[in-house]
Fold:
Amino acid sequence: MSENEEIKKDTAGTEQEAVQEAAEDIKEAEQESGEKKPDKQASAPEKTKKKSRNPFRSKKFKRGTLSIVFTALFIAGVVLVNVILGLVLERFNVEADLTTGSIFTLGSETEEYIKGVDDDVTFYVTAERETLNNAGNNYKQTVEYLDKMTVLNSRFKVQYVNLLTDPDFSNNYEEDLHNYEVIVQSGKTGRYRILAINDFMRYTLSDGKTYSYDEASMYVQYYGYTVSDYSSIAEEQIVSAIQSVSLADPTVVTFLTGYGESDSKPLEDILTANAYMTQNADIDRIEAVPENTDILVIHGATKDYSKESITKVDEWLSNGGKYGRDLVYIASADAAETPNLDEYLKEWGIEIGKGYVLQTDTDHAYYTGSAFPLMQDLEIKTDTEYYENMKIASAAKLVAFPLRPVIPLWEEESNMANKVIASAYGEKCILYPFTADESWSPTSDDYSGFNAVVEASKVQFEGGNEPVYSKIIVVGSDQLFASYYTTASNYSNGELALTIFDTNSGNNGEKIKIVEKSFTAETYQIDRSTQLVIGITFVAVIPVIIIVIGIVVWARRRRL
Structure:
């Protein structure tokens, strides 16, 4: 054996010994750890059964599940955001009014008033909400206003009532209910006001004058007039209704009946629209004027009062010598003979002329088919508190047609005084007597000035210092406050009527300034088809797209 062979043999033995020692070390380590691995070199590996893999623990499943979870969470998040936004929009009425004149937006003064109302006010609307929204801008405006008011004051709520499906609802009210009405009811006082949505509208026709809905309909249908403009007083009407039903102690105005009085509804409507309460009393049948009366009204009596009825009125005005009460006497434009009433007025220093005032100044006279200018402008005297209160009025004209003159018999007499509130313009007026025949004609020798509204008062000094008055405010014609003049925006007769009552009731606080809103200006409204497209897009199309994207992402990721 050569030297090289011996070296190789020694090396091989050494390697064999090293392998054997390493195997023994591994065996000892396995024994110590309690685990035994098969000795690949010592024996052949045993053939074992292949275990099945758990699909729920695979990487593909884990990745796919994670995608599904993320997709589901994303869709749930989108739905949740939509729900939350829907609730927020419903609760806070987050909208943009893009109309010219902001016809669907409440005024800032109205908003401040609504926020401060301490009453549970309910608006019952006798129509379906969807029906009103689709019936035209004036109906939709009412819905928008009521929604905004419930947002501004959490104590307000709106309930839509179908009178056909809920006929028993009408039993809650004395008046007959009709469709398209808003009932404003106070939870604190229990009082309510019924407003017709049609009455919220004012129409300017082709003659340049403004009419209510009923009047405009008549002129358009029977006289061929056309509508040139129409505006809304819905905000004013709803706010005044809230005021009138919520006031704990409103001013009560009693209209006396029983002697052929003329229609007082236009005047009553003005008062109820401005937080007054009105009631009627037949003076001939009651023992005394109702004690809750704050202001008494005789409106266009065409029959003479009995002595007994006049005594009832006088006793109420005198108030046991304490005074502090007011009567508004509105003369009938008819040539009625009322000697007892005439005598009573003279005791207060007032006489009603037996004829009509004719205005010869063409700048202030209007010919309306009559041979004489019975229609004319009136002016408010600037040295009275009535003038100061009328400054809130518009620049519209105050007119009379026809007018009986109110003649003061003195300025001051003992504890009595007279004050002119309104008169015909200038000194070129003539009295056209009721007894005039066809041969009568005016002459310049008869020119004079005539008064339209005069205040007569009696005073006593309470405790010797403070003056306390009882008053009779005499108006020369019941036509001064006829519906035609009180509802038209180009006349300020309604404002004069309200001023008379406000001045004598102390109701002269700061008023909410509400401007009529025209519907004829250009508006940026979304039509029905556009609304439908937008609704389908956000309710169906976008959610479906999101779901499809989620499925595609999941399918792609599960192949990774």
Summary: The chain has three domains: 60-87+524-558, 117-248, 250-508. Residues 521-525 have pLDDT under 50 and may be disordered. The longest helix spans residues 59-92.
